Each structure stands twice: as C-alpha cells, then as structure tokens.
Amino acid sequence: MDLYCVMGNPVEHSRSPHIHARFAELCGQQLEYTRRLVPIGAFAEGVASFRREAAEHGNIASGCNVTVPFKFDAAAIAQHTSERALLAQAVNMLRFEADGSIHADNTDGIGLVNDIVRNAAVPLAGCELLLIGAGGAAAGVLGPLLDAGASRIVVANRTVGKAMALVQRHAALALRHGATLEAWALDEVPGNFDVVINATASSLAGDAVPVRAQVLRPDALAVDLMYGPAAAGFIAWAEAHGAVGRDGLGMLVEQAAEAFEAWRGVRPPAAQVLAELRASLAVGQ
C-alpha cells in the first residue's frame, strides 16, 4: 500500500486526510493518508520514522504534505526543490522517489491561482493585485500569481522592509513576465485593485482589516487565505464595501489536488470535492 500523510504540530485540525481520501475514491487510487504529529525540532526524524515504519509493514511511504511549523524544515531535507518552492523559501509537499531521494514543492500558490481562475472564474491575466502581508503565506503565493499574468502586484506589510525583501526575491520573475512589483506600507498603498488577497492572520486574531477600503475596486475579488470563521472578518469587511468575498477553502482543496497529481499522475476533480466540503461545513459536519 502507498502511504501518505500530513505532518505538523498541531495537526489534528487538518482536513487533508478527508480531501485526499475523497480524491483517491473518485480516481480509483489505492492509498492511505493519515495525520502525523511531529515534535517541534524533529521534522527530519519524523520523515525518517514515517518511511521506516511503512517499510517495516510492507508498505511504501510515497510522500507527505507539510504544515506549520515545518515548511522551512521540509525544504532543508530535500535533494530536489522546485523553482516556486525555492522562491517561496518554504515547502508544503514532499515526494519520496524510488531512488531514496526527496523532491520538494510548494503547491499553495498554484492552488490559490487555480481557485481564483477556475472556481471563482476571475481572470488574473492583466489584473492589478494587492497582496497583504509578507510572511510565509504571502511568500508561498507571490510567484504563482506572477506566473498567472497579473500586470501589477503590490505587496503591503506592516514592516516595509519585509515586503521589500519579498519583492526583491521575485524581481527577476516579475521582469520575465513584464509585471510591475512594488512594496508599500499598509497605510500607504496607492490606488485600487481588481483582486485583494489577505495573507495575514488579521481575521483570526480579531484585528481590524489592515488596509483602507479604498483599495477595493467595485466588484473586486477579496480573498482571505484562511477559511471558515477565521476568514469571516475580512470577508464581511470586503462585502460591506462592494467587493466579492472568498475564503481560502478552495485554495486548500486545489493545493491538495496539485500534490495528489504530483504523487499519483492523476488529476482529481477538485471542484467536486470543494463543493462537497463546503456543503458539509455548511451543516456543521
């Protein structure tokens, strides 16, 4: 049996086992996907234990997803790393190769892009986009947003220096795509935008939205990378100012679909699983 898991601390909240089990069912794939709680500071040993235990029981550890706080640790143990993961400086997916090596990728950003373009039906090509935050979540999505063809992206952060560092790291990619990439303080963001993405934890912390409502164009798409109650504050703010609010549940499912395809060579029906998951959450399951 091919084994997969999600590794984190905490990890009991993760919906990944349900998502991947449903993908496997719909695609006719035989696999097992579980949660593994890994002690802080012991990620490499956690991976080694997963692979060793699988082999001891006649199974094959084929890959894992990685959640907080191990996305930086995961990058350190890989022999091969995708360009987008290198730019993000963080990893959320490992694939264990037959030769024993580890391939690392970050599917968060392409998951967000696919959710916006496919599920929300909002084109990113040629759009002007505001990315709020410059931490790990923002770093994970900036490269794929540039790849999707946004013509201008502003990264706004409380600490401007952190936003500038993220912009500088992606400057060559922006130049390759002919895109304008800027860094601004949260209270100094110029202009308004077609798409606004909240990559901070402001909603989760109960804080006010850290930018002015003037950044929203009429009918702009406003996405919080959190989902459920954690995204409610940002979405309510956006909708109160004439924008279309969206949470990060679609990104969660789409990034899982990218990992599933990388592992199994089969593209799962992400839109179907997203619809099912939204329906189950709506009735409190």
TrEMBL record:
Its EC number is 1.1.1.25. Shikimate binds at residues 14-16, 67, 92, 108, 227, 255. NADP(+) binds at residues 83, 133-137, 157-162, 225, 248. GO terms for molecular function: NADP binding; shikimate 3-dehydrogenase (NADP+) activity. It catalyses: shikimate + NADP(+) = 3-dehydroshikimate + NADPH + H(+). Keywords: Amino-acid biosynthesis, Aromatic amino acid biosynthesis, NADP, Oxidoreductase. One of its GO terms (cellular component) is cytosol. Residues 6-93 form the Shikimate dehydrogenase substrate binding N-terminal domain. Pathway: Metabolic intermediate biosynthesis; chorismate biosynthesis; chorismate from D-erythrose 4-phosphate and phosphoenolpyruvate: step 4/7. The keyword Glycosyltransferase does not apply. Homodimer. It comes from the Bacteria. Residues 123-203 form the Quinate/shikimate 5-dehydrogenase/glutamyl-tRNA reductase domain. Belongs to the shikimate dehydrogenase family. GO terms for biological process: amino acid biosynthetic process; aromatic amino acid family biosynthetic process; chorismate biosynthetic process; shikimate metabolic process. The active site is at residue 71. It is an enzyme of class 1 (oxidoreductase). Involved in the biosynthesis of the chorismate, which leads to the biosynthesis of aromatic amino acids. Catalyzes the reversible NADPH linked reduction of 3-dehydroshikimate (DHSA) to yield shikimate (SA). The keyword Chloroplast does not apply. It comes from Variovorax paradoxus. Residues 248-278 form the SDH C-terminal domain. This is Shikimate dehydrogenase (NADP(+)). The gene is aroE.
